[in-house]
Amino acid sequence: MEAFLLDIEAELSICEQAQVVWTEQGFPIVELAYHLALWLQRPAAGHEDFELDSMQAEEGLIRIVHSEDGWRVGSTLTPDFWTLPVTWEDLVTAIKHFDRSVREGVAAMGIAPTFIPEL
User: Are the beta carbons of 69 and 91 closer than 8 angstroms?
Assistant: First the structure.
């Protein structure tokens, strides 16, 4: 399983109002999907921040934090940039969309994405 989490990479971008503000080539997207799914399954989901603790990428490369106005996405690579705040429901919808895209990509490679926890 660990090989799938680390070996399947793609371009990952953070967009704000249809404008790409950060992009990373060769990002371990399956590992991100895996950790986001675990985060959403935690009892504290919706109450605690997320920071990708990757075996391959820099710690904090992807961060999701709660602010007074809602949830924001950022990265240690762009410490002064945060997306506009969104509601918890909108954040979960975006994560589920990302999860579906990753699963479809993995399945298209002929690999069953069963190692990614279900949302």
Answer: no
Among 59, 51, 55, which Cα is nearest to 9's?
55
> How far is the C-alpha of 91 from the C-alpha of 99, rounded, in Å?
12
Burial zone of 69 (CB within 10 Å; 0-12 exposed, 13-18 middle, 19+ buried): exposed
CB atoms within 10 A of CB 25: 8
16 closest CA partner among 86, 102, 68: 86
Amino acid making up residue 22: W
Provide the β-strand partners of residue 50: 64
Which residue shows structure tokens 């990302």?
98
Element (H, E) at 2: helix 2-7
Please write the tens of the pLDDT for every residue from 37-90. 999 999 999 999 999 987 766 677 899 999 999 999 988 888 888 899 999 999
Q: Residue 1: is its pLDDT beyond 70?
A: no
State the residue for tokens 């918890």: 88
- Residue 65 near residue 72 (C-beta atoms within 8 A): yes
